[in-house]
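Worked example 2:
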Amino acid sequence: MPARSVTDIQAAERLFEATFRVLADAGLTYYFVTVFLEKEREMERLEACILLGFLAVFAWIDCRKKELPLSLLGVCGVVGIVFSRLIFDRTWSVILGGACVGGFILLCSLVMKESVGFADGILFCALGTYTGMWQTLLLLFGATALCGLAGGFLLLTKKCTRKESLAFAPFVLAAFVGEMILC
């Protein structure tokens, strides 16, 4: 075997060192990206837990009284705006887009002389500040479908009449939980 020169050994050491640095940099980058993504997921989980808590309280109150307290809805909306702007750095267009879904429900409530609850519209305005327009629309669709199925079942079993109203917040809660499980 031929003897290796000092320059060959130094070149091999430099190559090894450069390779090690690249791998170490890639490893650190991977570590920081996964830590960042994990922190992002943790914040999303925290936001989901806060929203789940608000929705559980709203569902309980709506089942008992068939009305929602506007002050608590306002607190929910303010917390949603703070979370969206300060923690998730969402744009105002995303926040307002989500709130517009609730605005549409409020408009429907006015036009249909509160066949759709006014507080339900404010609830969706508050939800929209957390979730944005598309997820809020998905929640509205899911809650409406669940409410329609439950109402149809109650009508078929003659447990209620067509003139009776159903509390809507429990169906919003069920749709939110379903969305959390499925998505």
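The chain has one domain: 44-182. The chain has a mean pLDDT of 80.
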